[in-house]
Amino acid sequence: MSSKITTYAEIxxxxxxxxxxxxxxxxxxxxxxxxxxxxxxxxxxxxKPGGKFTYRMEAKDGSxxxxxxxxxxxxxPNEGLSYVMxxxxxxxxxxxxxxxxxxxxxxxxPEKINSEDLQKGGWQSILDNFKKHVESFQKxxxxxxxxxxxxxxxxxxxxxxxxxxxxxxxxxxxGSYFKGTxxxxxxxxxxxxxxxxxxxxxxSRIAENIPNQYISIEHLGMVSKGEEVTTGPEVEAFAGWTxxxxxxxxxxxxxxxxxxxxSEAYRDSFEVSWPKALKILKDLCEGKPN
Length: 290
What we know:
Low-confidence stretches: none
CATH topology of the largest domain: Alpha-D-Glucose-1,6-Bisphosphate, Chain A, domain 4
CATH architecture of the largest domain: 2-Layer Sandwich
Order of helices and strands: EHHEEEEEEHEHHEEEEEHEEH
Largest sheet: 8 strands, antiparallel
Distance between the termini: 62 Å
Mean pLDDT: 93
Number of strands: 15
Number of domains: 2
Number of helices: 7
Radius of gyration: 21 Å
Structural class: alpha+beta
């Protein structure tokens, strides 16, 4: 078999956002096609080693279509992944952080039917679509970060422990708390009392939890007057939004990065509240009064 074919794109977006868009089915359907005549109407995956993915590829006129399927081998959030296609060919995807931008490299084993130039052109077109998609939603993505003078393990636990979670999230809503666990694939509710004393908030899922490295939250619905709502127009506006936390060891200190999907309507509020919340988290981790 010939050597691997390589495609590459440099994307003007933080690495966490690139990772989310590359792996979330909600995003995959918006970029995973090589030409305007094709689309990807369905996508589902199990983002874990041994997990399967199925991406439906169809001509928009309905004349043809096929399922692009494979099995994930390695998953490293914000670094890359690898998978094996149905015919046994290997694909390796690598992300590289570049001063606020992200380089993405896709290496794959060629097949024997089409020329390597044709294959490279098709895969590069898909990657170019991906770049265009990611850069198009930057106004609806929010990025915050802070350096905390404490080990990663302490920052990680302080962020998700019940007692301290209530403190640093009180900036967003007095009385905030969570109900559930932070284990991967578990349901979790993010709640707080309304003016009438009823719980309101978000119905969510822990999409990923790699201790001391990465947490990804997928928002599925809302809690209104104590009732969970996961369907309807209000939910459709945000269902599938993700909120991602990345932890980097700086030799005893921690760089915490938050990337989250949202709406431009929230920008002014988030740009005030998130720095305040992270300052409280920093003080908690560093043992300062708050």
